[in-house]
Design goal:
It is a single chain. By secondary structure, the chain is mostly helical. It has one domain (about 20-79). Helices cover about 70% and strands about 0% of the residues. It has helices at about 5-15, 25-45, 50-75. Helix 2 packs antiparallel against helix 3 (about 50-75). The radius of gyration is 19 Å and the shape is elongated. It starts with a helix and ends in a 5-residue tail after the last helix. It comes from Pseudovirgaria hyperparasitica.
Length: about 80
């Protein structure tokens, strides 16, 4: 009797996982995101208004967050 989990496992073996950002380019992507977050944060600090929160604040925080994770992965720290 064949297990459905075994069939899924065998089907997945034919399609290996390919990450969206390869290991060789994680440092570049992380550095670019951190730099973008720093620039957006500086502009947001100089131009505080209710309209700049969604236009500058949210993208800056997302860039910092994802940039930090990519940099941590790029330098070999296990998360």
């Amino acid at each position: 009797m064949s297990s459905p989990l075994k069939q899924i496992w065998d089907a997945a073996a034919a399609n290996p996982y390919q990450p969206a950002v390869g290991k060789d380019s994680q440092f570049t992507v992380g550095f670019a995101l951190l730099l973008t977050g720093l620039i957006l944060t500086g502009i947001f600090g100089l131009n505080r208004s209710m309209i700049s929160i969604p236009l500058l604040g949210v993208p800056a925080s997302l860039a910092f967050g994802f940039g930090a994770v990519y940099m941590i992965c790029a330098v070999g720290v296990n998360v």
